[in-house]
Amino acid sequence: MDSPGMFQEGRRGYDRSQVDAYLAALAAGGPPVGFQGFDTVRRGYDRAEVDAHLAALSGVVPLPSAPPAPADFRGFDTGVRGYDRSQVDAYLAAFAAGGPPAGFQGFDTVRRGYDRAQVDAHLAALHRDLR
To answer: Do 45 and 8 meet the contact criterion of CB atoms below 8 Å apart?
Structure first.
């Protein structure tokens, strides 16, 4: 299940070494423990191709669950400083399960977090759709 050459490289895409390690772990018996998703980097694997490949495997191998998103949602880029990925993911999961979480105070800013402008725009669109 090697991925070199399996996916096209794009201007921005999933971190190739992370995708390769994930697929190697799948081939060895299951997804890596603590998998949080792939970072988006310059010259990474095409996200749509990787997502389609993982979706095709989902009937055979359990994949990490993700909250439903609009069809055109491609995920967030990561940056040197950004929103804590686990907090954003938990918020989106709670949102998908029934709306915005009560008592939400905001996300911590951390190294290698989700792009703040992208998260803010996505959340604004989700909240706009609620009205």
So the answer is: yes
